[in-house]
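Students often ask what a 'structure token' actually looks like in practice. Rather than answer in the abstract, let us consider Beta-galactosidase, a protein of 584 residues. Its sequence is given first.
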Amino acid sequence: MSEFTVGEADFLLDGRPVRLLSGALHYFRVHEGHWRHRLAMLRAMGLNCVETYVPWNLHRPVPGAHRDVRALGRFLDAVGEAGLWAIVRPGPYICAEWENGGLPPWVTGEPGTRARTRDERYLSHVRRWFRHLAREIVPRQIDRDGPVILVQVENEYGSYGSDTGYLERLAGLLRAQGVTAALFTSDGPEDHMLTGGSLPGVLATVNFGSHAREAFATLRRHRPTGPLMCMEFWCGWFGHWGGEHAVRDPGEAAGVLREILECGASVNLYMAHGGTSFDGWAGANRGGALHEGPLEPDVTSYDYDAPVDEYGRPTEKFWRFREVLAEYHAGPLPQPPQRPAPLGRPAEVTLDGWSSLGDVLRTLGGEETVAPVPPTFEELSVTRGLVRYEVDVPGPRQPYPLTVRGLRDLAVVYVDGERAGVLTEEEPRLKEPVAGPACVELWVESLGRVNYGPRFGEAKGITGGILHERQYLHGVRARGLDLDAFAGGVAAVPYGAPPGEGVAGLYRGGVTVRGAGDARLELPGWTRGFVWVNGFGLGRYWSVGPQRSLYVPGPVLREGENEVWVLELQGVDPDRPAPRLLPV
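Now compare that with the structural description of the same chain:
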């Protein structure tokens, strides 16, 4: 057993000063079959530690039901076998450009509960979660011959609140569950963030992408002693649908890394390898300086312009960082491991089955609810997916504008079965007025819950009401379709031949693979939806870009026939070419 402690100036391993050269790699964004390869890539870059968040909502999507929490333990075992230390960031809030910042919507949407505060109802949920999670962390701490050396309290809390008593309660909950590893907080290098987000007696670290000396000077004003550490060196950035792919010059980023290390600090590269937000778990942000503006949904790829790209390949940034980090190693660095095999050859996907969205909803959806006003996704227990709202316009009455108040995030609208338009938060009114009597259907999709800023935890769906002219329409029928419903397969959904006009629906078929391996799926002519291959959720696709294909990890594919489902939510170009798998 070893002892890892926080000294007056350095981290100490059994009393000897050590520097942490860490990289972020989220086990939940990497297929388990690739964990060891990605960890070996981090070692080859010159890192001695790996950092990961833990998403509460992934492991407990509904109250009382846990889902593969042991994945964290398996990952930490792989970290130890790779000869690396581990930093664990259990939240409960993690941000991470992840759905709802990692918190389950059944917690943030519970009436009367105040997330990220000392609210007792909220803390009771956290306590139960930490009790379960500790079983994976505590036995793997360094004082028990495991790799875990640091555990974070919350995450960038100073960017959100100032209740340090809440942080104290969280630290106490971690200690009560047997966490003996050194605790830390991480915040931006600004006075108000460090004042609101740090705790006396707990290591404070800072997050930034440049100006290392200024950042550490700010930290020193708050903490005159203790090791310096940049817990998140933002060496790249994430992307939004409809935006641009973020790129950072490798030489410039390597220069900032060198500056951090010349300050005598430890560092954690965020991200060292970003991976993918599979199965629709990507979050969203709000635009504007105060994060109160338009919704900006995060793309499925979490490539992050990281030194190890989404497919596990070393980039130019990898080699530049390796040059810098090699100076802090006594001996030569290991060579990068052989990359996983790519797909043997391109393959065309045949989608010869189709089910309407209505049939999919009737088979896989939840129970229909009738309410005076539209229920939210949270009230319908929908984590990720969509809700169909139906309401009748009484008649006879002349055509009036139809408006959706409080729409989050996007609605495809049908009037008497005919598509009438697509509504968004910014454009919540149909272009053509609606006369009565009529039946209006609104298929509302969540594009990802906000993961950062003051609007974190906001509800999804129709949060205001449906207006015909200035009159609210009541008696709303609502039924949700959660993406988790697809985990059990779609065999029960009735299907026939795809319609020629390329309408929305669930398209089913397959692809024959020769030489199973890492691939990417292209869907030219498709608009917006989700894809599963052999039941594995690849995530959201969207024609607005910048992402143009979906990553298919090699372990998902099998030699020969493979099943493919595509849930198209808006419509398809009838003259589209066939989707295809390509090697990466």
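One point worth highlighting: The two ends are 42 Å apart (CA to CA). Ask yourself how you might have guessed this from the sequence alone, and why that guess would often be unreliable.
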